[in-house]
Amino acid sequence: MADTIAAVSTASGAGAIGILRISGPDALKISLLHLRGIESESNRISVQPRHAYTLNFVDHDRKLDRVVVVFFPGPNSFTGEDLCEIHAHGNPILLREILECLFRSGARPAKQGEFTKRAFLNGKLDLNEAEAIGRIIQARSRFELELAQKNAFGELSRLASNLRSQLVSLKAECEAEIDFSTEDLTFESLVQRKNRIRKVLETCENLLKKSGQAETLLERSRVVLYGEPNTGKSSLMNLILGRERSIISDIPGTTRDYVSEEFLLAGIPIRLTDTAGVRETGDKVERMGIERSEKEFSSADVRVFVIDLSQEIDWGEFARSNLSKLNGAVIAANKFDIASPGWNPSAIRNILSDAVVCEVSCKTRQGIDELIREISEKLQSLESSEDYVLLEERNRYHFLSIVRSLNACLALIGENAPAEVYIKEIDIALDEIGEVNGRVDTEEVLGRIFSKFCVGK
């Protein structure tokens, strides 16, 4: 790159430390114009690569801050260019002053994602790794962070490279058959060739499936509170949220429809839903609400079945009659402070050996923290990043194109088309897999990708 860019790389707002990055051919030269020794205040400073120096940052003769400076010469830097990092105190006004000094001395403001874009263009990252950095910065949950880390460490790139290798091998075999069809040579059978194509096809389809499932989980995990009227579902929702959201009343049927709220529970984005109390009723409107409650509960990611311990009932019989709904659910045994003498959690566990029963009281708040822990553990068990993969929209498009091309290839083979015809579909698949790891030629596409980054990245 011909020019030198600069930006604050730490988050906006005040902090203990603020880091400025300067990257480009004049990164060190521009930085040294404003750096002075602590003791001698000399401007004759010798900076060794990858050493940290404590220096004064000055604007002409005015000292702005005492900073730590590290110089990374290209190509052994994040961007692949000469790069300086200036670690100053994290006051936004001070950082802006330092930045203005760098601009006056020849640097220009970095555009969004320009540091990472330069790293990509200089071969320090492939496009999947570059995109993953953006996801790491913006991740809203541990699950999303782990998925982004897998891509940042090259898991998707290695998979794409392996698929490309298989497609190159397929193409080479087809071309050999075309070029040497008159020679006395043995080539793989059509059955073997179709099996090799199906293997690549199945890998791509599985990747798309896992990516779709991951995106569903990333949107919001759905936690639904369910139970009979007056079991305390609305009170429980308000306690989990930490504020009044659902109307609370001792009149049965107060909640006629489900009420939802989105928030972070233990760092996981969820949608918490309070449903209408389930009972036999002749009220048409209430019955519609109950039907919606049933639907919400059956499709939830985590189901919380709320029961009222003040009732004197046979809990074993209750478990048997609600077996399908209790199975896999977290049971919030509410009103523990006024539980009837007949309450015995073992009666439920005798029917459901792996039942998760949390004894809680919305009135005294007893057991609420334990219930939230159980819900969090259920969410985290859903969100094991090991079984999922994160594909950006760009990559989903390329893998879908590969699936279409390979299906077309198999169809042509099934119609006894010659290798000269169906090899074209393999060529298309090869072009698409090349795009996955970042063989991108247009500035417009690159601009769209890196515009999602923050300025200092």
Automatic annotation (TrEMBL):
Subcellular location: Cytoplasm
Major location category of this protein: cytoplasm
EC number(s) on file: 3.6.-.-
Positions contributing to K(+) binding: N230, S249, I251, T254
GO cellular component: cytosol
Molecular-function GO terms, alphabetical: GTP binding; GTPase activity; metal ion binding
UniProt-annotated binding residues for GTP: 230-235, 249-255, 274-277
Residues reported to bind (6S)-5-formyl-5,6,7,8-tetrahydrofolate: R21, E85, K124, K457
Any one biological process term the GO annotation gives: tRNA methylation
Pfam families attached to this UniProt entry: MMR_HSR1, MnmE_helical, TrmE_N
Keywords associated with the record: Cytoplasm, GTP-binding, Hydrolase, Magnesium, Metal-binding, Nucleotide-binding, Potassium, tRNA processing
InterPro entries for this protein: G_TrmE, GTP-bd, GTP-bd_TrmE_N, GTPase_MnmE, MnmE_dom2, MnmE_helical, P-loop_NTPase, Small_GTP-bd
Family: Belongs to the TRAFAC class TrmE-Era-EngA-EngB-Septin-like GTPase superfamily. TrmE GTPase family.
Function: Exhibits a very high intrinsic GTPase hydrolysis rate. Involved in the addition of a carboxymethylaminomethyl (cmnm) group at the wobble position (U34) of certain tRNAs, forming tRNA-cmnm(5)s(2)U34.
Annotated HAMAP family: GTPase_MnmE
Self-association and partners: Homodimer. Heterotetramer of two MnmE and two MnmG subunits.
Name of the molecule in the record: tRNA modification GTPase MnmE
Organism: Leptospira fluminis
